[in-house]
Specification:
Helix content is 17%, strand content 42%. By secondary structure, the chain is of the alpha+beta class. The strands form five sheets. Strands 11-12-13-14-15 form a five-stranded antiparallel beta sheet. A three-stranded antiparallel beta sheet has the order 1-2-3, with no helix packed on it. A three-stranded antiparallel beta sheet has the order 4-5-6. The relative contact order is 0.14. Bound molecules: zinc ion (ZN) (2 copies). The site of one zinc ion has 7 residues, from loops.
Length: 199
């Protein structure tokens, strides 16, 4: 489902059978009611075939797979020995967290502060030429904030942008219900530059 080495999710594509897409190609994410063990998220993603498709992702795949939770054996080309990428990823992740870095973070507009977050709190992603609009439901206050960030900030754990754009109002639920609505809302919004810092 998720390949930690390429940072891509695999979904079914009606045209090409399979599509490998990064988190930043997700457009909408919604937790399905009912399923709890594991929780399942319905996503819509921009496919490499040019269409938008629906897909399902488990909570585990969304939040933990990018940290290497399911990565398997890999062949180390330098030593020609196979290695265990799970422990490599885990060690790397643990070192980051010890240094006070969080895999993902965002700026909560109503609280006026940066907060650590996981992809399961992402609600919508809107592509742009230089910036990606990322709507996040704050795990602490549950309000919806929109940050303008780089693609790496979304796709790669521990690649937090130092400076981001923050849309200067709380988003209504309706404003991000479809990719078109979110894009239109973003284009009519003002945003301020903020520093993301967690410690
Ligand atoms: Zn497709
Ligand atoms: Zn908040």
């Amino acid at each position: 489902m998720y390949d930690a080495l390429t940072a891509r999710y695999t979904f079914t594509c009606p045209r090409h059978e399979q599509a490998q897409v990064a988190l930043s190609s997700f457009r909408l994410l919604e937790r399905l009611p009912g399923a709890t063990r594991p929780a399942v998220y319905e996503v819509r993603f921009d496919c490499t075939c040019g269409d938008e498709h629906p897909g399902l992702v488990s909570h585990d795949d969304l939040d933990w797979a990018p940290l290497g939770a399911h990565a398997g054996q890999f062949l180390d080309l330098m030593t020609s020995r196979s290695g265990d990428s799970v422990s490599e990823f885990r060690e790397t992740a643990a070192a980051h967290v010890k240094a006070g870095e969080w895999p993902w973070s965002f700026y909560c507009y109503p609280e006026g502060r940066s907060r650590p977050v996981f992809p399961s709190s992402f609600v919508a992603v809107s592509p742009g030429e230089r910036w990606i609009g990322l709507a996040v439901r704050c795990p602490a206050c549950e309000s919806l904030s929109v940050n303008l960030v780089t693609q790496a900030h979304v796709d790669l754990p521990f690649a937090n942008d130092v400076r981001i754009g923050v849309v200067d109002h709380v988003f209504a639920e309706d404003a991000v219900r479809t990719a078109d609505l979110f894009s239109a809302e973003l284009h009519s919004s003002r945003f301020d530059e903020r520093r993301l810092h967690l410690n």
